[in-house]
Design a protein that fits this description.
alpha/beta, Rossmann fold, 4 domains, about 750 residues, about 35% helix, 7-stranded mixed sheet
């Protein structure tokens, strides 16, 4: 920094609980590393400042009350007024955004579909908030991308100087933290007593930590009385607790901020989880520095110095406050965790090489076994729904530390050095040998290389997982191509499909929609293996993030549309099959039902433009239909500029454009033959027609959506649904399935 140049001032805002504040410390560390002379302050709720004690990256910690009078709140806001150059909030709340806006020249944060639009406007730079599929720590680090700073993944625990309590005897000890703040996160008293006694049988002193409430101290004392543990509940402030845990041999705790703290200290940690989503709230392991979540949604797992044990049940994790949906509820999944099982994990971790208890810089992440996974797709990374599905999921799964991903393809575009590619030759002539040749060559390559799991996005003779992006080939010939006599190519393709099903007693088949599933059920008398619908994902950030007003102004100006036009959008490459004619007639009918509103249609894609221009002229809406042609870039902005999305296909296995439109916040109107109808709640986030040519019904829906209040409500609902189907969420589901298969086949 040059002499006399003022320091950059940063404010980091986190107005949530201890765990949230602790997982925000990497943001401050990243800022300090990029700007060593920067001034960094952090604003937290009163009572949360203890987790920042001794933090070397911060100049000061500002505390604000949970609740305050209007005048006291106004005073605290006035004291912040433009004190900082940049303010970042890791919390998607109106209050946090207000602190950032008033306190800085540049406010950075996130928003979700429920966010009040006016408060979102307070942010200079923003990203959508992922409350399900992204870890809390990674969600905070995404803010750094907006100010062009490199990410740092180090969680900074508090410290009071490192001195241990006088009550602690000499020798090795273990720490149990049995009492979370909320009852629905609580394990069993008998389980804690069992662990304490087991640890003592291994020659370790057992120390209990906890807060100062009467209930918490009494709970700890019950364990101490049954096991002769040392109960320090209520006797240490948070930083002292951190110094104690840092020197322990092992820590066991529930889903609470102290468990996050223990994970950051680098000692062996066992975390007990029940209703909570571990993808978002699993303890961040020491020295784990990846952009991929360390935890899957379902199942116990080990990552670095942390062993996460999740309760069992089809409902786990339910993301709710226990079985009865309130803070004092029981959680049967937690209560069902076997103490002996936890004890065995504990003994295994204790038997490992000591981790260097006093050092925060020890590398504790073991090198995991690599599982060799084959992904089969003829054209990887090229144009196509199935090809895009394969690329999006595979690229993300290649970031999983113990997955060694190999792609078997005839053509590919390599976009990741983490993936190994293998050429599968194809037979171009005679054409009918192509399907058989590809399947035979793929099977030969699989046998030669030896994989733990095979996932195919194309019909081959056998795979552990088949992602089915279409319907049975014989049905496609009849239904889509309208042919009664199959060609030699069709017969060859169908023969590979039949063999895959015949040998798939243990395989997992994943059709992309209920339409695809029904087609297989109708084509085959009996379906072998395991069948589950798995919808494609969407790049939620790409389609939800562009500024709606800016896109609306730019796109409508480009195509000669008025800002108050009610703009229908069509995106497709086959106008006839996608139902464009019915959409044009629906526009005409809607205009006649509501003459006071100007309905317009923007057609994006390639087709017989002259033919459909004549149809528009016949319908009397020639001036209301604009053909934009194909769009290689900027499609997300076109979505954001529209008011409603329409797709009246006579057949569409899924229809990715529907999910893209929903991510952009568009209510959708689709025919019953569009597979993406699975994601549509009729009248909530869109409408499903009775038939592809239901012009009158479609027109009535268009008129209804012209009401601003209903439109805004359905727009938000569409985005919420799309958010649940991001590629990140899809990849987590696929990783969970992979691990389930690997576990069942004893490959793990």
């Amino acid at each position: 920094m040059s002499e006399g140049k003022p320091s950059i001032k940063f404010l980091v805002v986190c107005t949530l609980r201890l765990g949230d504040v602790l997982l925000t410390t990497p943001v401050a560390r990243a800022i300090k590393r990029a700007h060593p002379h920067a001034v960094i302050d952090m604003l937290v709720l009163q009572g949360m400042e203890g987790v920042l004690e001794g933090n070397p990256d911060l100049r000061q910690v500002i505390t604000v009350p949970h609740r305050a009078t209007f005048w006291s709140r106004l005073k605290e806001l006035w004291q912040l007024w433009k004190q900082y150059d940049i303010a970042l909030t890791t919390v998607s709340s109106d209050r946090a955004r207000m602190y950032c806006f008033l306190g800085s020249k540049c406010s950075v944060g996130s928003y979700n579909p429920h966010s009040f639009w006016l408060s979102v406007g307070l942010l200079s730079r923003k990203i959508p908030f992922d409350d399900t599929g992204t870890h809390t720590l990674l969600m905070g680090l995404k803010l750094l991308d907006l100010i062009h700073l490199p990410r740092v993944y180090t969680v900074i625990p508090p410290t009071a100087g490192g001195r241990l309590p006088a009550a602690l005897p000499a020798g090795d000890f273990a720490v149990l933290h049995p009492y979370p703040k909320f009852h629905y996160k609580r394990w069993t008293l008998s389980g804690w007593i069992y662990l304490a006694q087991l640890l003592q049988s291994q020659g370790l002193t057992v120390v209990l930590t906890g807060g100062s409430t009467l209930e918490e101290v009494d709970y700890g004392q019950q364990i101490a009385d049954a096991s002769k543990a040392i109960n320090l509940a209520g006797q240490l402030r948070l930083a002292q607790t951190a110094d104690l845990i840092a020197k322990a041999r092992i820590f066991v705790g529930p889903d609470t901020g102290i468990t996050h703290l223990a994970a950051a200290l680098g000692i062996p940690v066992i975390a007990l989880f029940g209703p909570t989503n571990p993808v978002k709230w699993g303890p961040w392991p020491k020295d784990y520095a990846r952009d991929i979540n360390p935890w899957a949604m379902k199942g116990s797992a080990r990552c670095g110095n942390v062993q996460l044990i999740q309760g069992e049940g089809d409902c786990v994790p339910c993301h709710q406050e226990g079985c009865f949906r309130h803070l004092e509820s029981r959680s049967k999944c937690l209560e069902g965790i076997d103490p002996e099982g936890v004890g065995q994990y504990m003994l295994d971790m204790l038997a490992e090489k000591p981790l260097g208890k006093a050092s925060l810089d020890v590398q504790v992440t073991p090198v995991p076994r690599k599982f060799r996974i084959a992904v089969i797709v003829p054209k990887y990374g090229l144009v196509g729904g199935g090809e895009g599905f394969a690329r999006e999921v595979t690229e993300r799964l290649s970031c999983v530390s113990d997955f060694d991903i190999h792609v078997l393809a005839s053509q590919w575009i390599q976009s990741s050095k983490r993936i190994t590619f293998h050429k599968i030759p194809t037979i171009a002539f005679p054409r009918f040998l192509g399907p058989l040749g590809f399947a035979w060559a793929a099977q030969k390559k699989i046998k030669a290389l030896g994989f733990d799991l095979v996932h195919s996005h194309h019909w081959v003779f056998h795979a552990d997982v088949f992602s089915s992006h279409g319907i049975p080939h014989a049905g496609w010939i009849r239904r889509v191509r309208n042919r009664s006599i199959p060609s030699l190519y069709d017969l060859a393709f169908s023969s590979v499909e039949h063999r895959a099903l015949a040998q798939g007693m243990d395989s997992y088949f994943l059709p992309v929609s209920s339409i695809a599933m029904s087609a297989f059920q109708n084509e085959y008398a009996e379906l072998p293996g395991h069948w589950n619908i798995l919808h494609p994902g969407v790049n939620y950030a790409r389609f939800s993030q562009p500024d709606r007003m800016g896109c609306r102004i730019a796109v409508r100006k480009k195509y000669g549309l008025e800002q108050n036009d009610f703009l229908m959008l069509f995106v497709g490459m086959n106008f006839e099959v996608k139902g464009l004619e019915s959409i044009i007639w629906s526009l005409s009918k809607a205009q006649s039902l509501l003459p006071s509103r100007r309905f317009k249609l923007l057609v994006v894609g390639r087709g017989n433009q002259a033919k459909f221009a004549r149809i528009a002229k016949s319908a009397g809406v020639e001036d209301a239909v604009t053909f934009a042609g194909t769009q290689q870039e900027g499609l997300e902005c076109i979505y954001r500029a529209a008011d409603v999305f329409t797709l009246f296909s006579t057949f569409d296995t899924f229809g990715m454009v529907v999910l893209e439109a929903m991510a952009a916040g568009l209510p959708v109107i689709v025919s019953p033959n569009v597979g993406a109808k699975d994601l549509i709640a009729h009248g909530i986030n869109g409408y499903i027609l009775m038939r592809p040519d239901s012009v009158d019904m479609a027109a009535q829906h268009l008129v209804s959506l012209s009401d601003p209040v209903l439109h805004e409500k359905m727009s938000r609902a569409a985005q919420i649904e799309a958010h649940e189907h991001s590629w990140e969420a899809m990849s987590i589901k696929m990783e969970t399935l992979y691990r389930q298969i690997l576990s069942k086949s004893s490959r793990m």
